User: What shape does this take?
Amino acid sequence: MKIIQKAATTLSIIGCLLCSNIYALELPKESRVPGGIAIIPLEGLNTKATPSAWYKGNRIMVLPSEGTSYAEQAKWIAVAGIPLSAKATKKQHLRANATSFYFSVDDKEYKAQYLTIKNKRHVEPDPEDVKRWRREKAKMVAAYKSWSEPALKDIQFDLPAQGRFSSPFGLKRFYNKQPRNPHSGLDIAAPKGTPIIAPAEGVVADTGHYFFNGKTVIVDHGRGLTTMYCHMSRIDVKIGDKIQKGDQLGAIGSTGRSTGPHLHWGVSLNNTRVDPILFLKK
Assistant: This one.
C-alpha cells in the first residue's frame, strides 16, 4: 500500500512539474514606450483555444496568463512590440477575436549618434545598390512576418556575444551628418572572430551577405518573435537549421556598413523592432 501511495505521490509531483513547465515562461520586461513592449490582459476572452490577436496589421503573440502576475485579470495576455515611430497616446488599439483592447504609450526621447562612414555608397547608395537593398529588405520583412507556433520554452534571452555595449537601441542616427533611421538594435563591440551564440532555441529563417547589414542571420523563435545578427565575419548555420540555446551562429566581424568589429543584435516582435535589453534575463 505504501509503495502505491509513494508512486502516486511521485506521479503527482511529476505532473505538477510538467504543468509548471508549461506556464513557467518568464515574460520580457514591459516598457510602454516607442520601441518597447506592452503586455495586455485580454479580459473577457475565456476561450480554450489561443485567441488570434492583431496590432497595426501584424499578428501578435498571445500566451496563457497562468503562472504570471496577470492571471487574476485574464486567462490570456497579449505581448506586443511598439514601433519606434509610435506617438504618445492613451489609446493604442489591438484586436483579439474581434474584440477591441486599448493601451497607453508614453513618450521617450532617444539620444543622437553621429558616425563617419568611409564608404560613401553606404551613405548615398547608387541605383543598383538601392535595388539590392530593396530585395534584401523584402527577404528580411518576410522573415519578420513569418508565423509559427512552437511550444515556447523561453522568451528571455542570454546575451548572444560577450563584449561592450557600444550603441544602445533607439539612437537617432546621423551618417556623415545626414539623418537616417533610428538604431534598431543593440551593438556589442568585440574583436573579430568572437563567437555569436544563439540566445534561445529557434529555426534559422534567413542568412545572407546584405548591402548594409553585411553577413547576417535571422532566427525565428516562434509566434512573431525573431532575432537578427549582423556584420558577422562568418556564418556557421544555414536556412532551416534548428537551433538550440548556446549553439554557435557565427562570429563577430565588420561586414556591411560598420565602423569596426561588432555585433548588431536586433529583436523583432510582431514585425516591430524592439529594445533587446527588455528580453535579457535579470
Observations:
- The chain has a mean pLDDT of 88.
- The domain at 26-105 is CATH 2.60.40.1590 (Immunoglobulin-like).
- The first strand starts at residue 37 and ends at 41.
- The chain has two domains: 26-105, 112-279.
